Amino acid sequence: MSDSAPSARWLRWGGAALVLAALLVLPFLFKNYRVFQFNLVLAYAIAVLGLNILTGFNGQISLGHGAFYAIGAYTAAVLMDRLGWPFWATLPVSGVVCFGLGFLMGFPALRLSGHYLALATYALGLAIPQLLKYRHLEGLTGGVQGIVLNKPEPPFALQLFGQPLGGDRWLYYVSLAVAALMFLLAWNLLRGRVGRALVAIRDHPIAAAAMGIDLPMFKSLTFGVSAGYTGVAGALGAVAVAFVSPDSFTILLSISLLVGVVVGGLASIPGAIFGAIFIQFIPNLSDHLSKSAPWALYGAFLIGFMYLMPAGVMGLARKWRGRRQPPAAPGAARPEVQAGD
Length: 341
Description:
By secondary structure, the chain is an all-alpha fold. It has one domain: ABC transporter involved in vitamin B12 uptake, BtuC (Orthogonal Bundle), CATH 1.10.3470. It contains 14 helices and four strands. Strands 1-4 form a two-stranded antiparallel ribbon. The chain has a two-stranded antiparallel ribbon with strand order 2-3. Helix 2 (32-57) runs antiparallel to helix 10 (215-241), helix 3 packs parallel to helix 5 (114-132) and helix 3 packs across helix 10.
């Protein structure tokens, strides 16, 4: 029994090393368009993670996070196009801008909950694309025409498997590093006292307040952190697409992010990756299989996912892992559920 824990630890580290090696080699195994899609998956994963912090861990439903994605994208685009900033420098600025706006949005949202909060954020998601078209802001946002960006080029030349390190592949490595950092920050934030406070507010707000948790401040900060994550994702998405326009950030984007949260699994950090894969590839697959009714097929896929995995991908993984583990001995301590599950 004493040798099982070290062996399991080495198995996890070995699996992590294999996954890391696969991710590093991945962009050289596919053509540029597929690598471009992988870049969007990484951006969506950060956005889904940010929304999951708000909805899955704190219980605040948002149908307007596409607005923060748009604000982050436009912040990066304006800084790159108008001021000549390098793309990597726009990422933290986009995150800070969206954090501030999300924090301010959190204060009026304190009086709302459930479907009332969902409707308020839905209004935000509807309003932002229209504001980006406002004629007095056309000099900054480009109006309905949007802003065309230059995709960043790698600082050095490299070839692997006969494929050169082009703009999409270079951006993939940058996006992978940013996503890894954002996931690590979320894991550290949610596995400690802050994560327990968020879950307590979600499950028993009155009891959480009685225990001394500052509900207004925690809810507002959670909204800000969630919006900041989505802003960074929007900046990465804008750089990957090399174009922003108001029509790219319709309310469908907000709904898709929420779909990603549910598909990946509520209150699950790794689930954001599976949710992002669903957002990026399932609509393309539906369009490939049916040109006449792609959204009907997309709905069928979504219904099938929810029927087979009502708790999301990570919920199914936890259920499968629980079946594989032997039953605990009477009186034995139960393992603590980590935020990374």
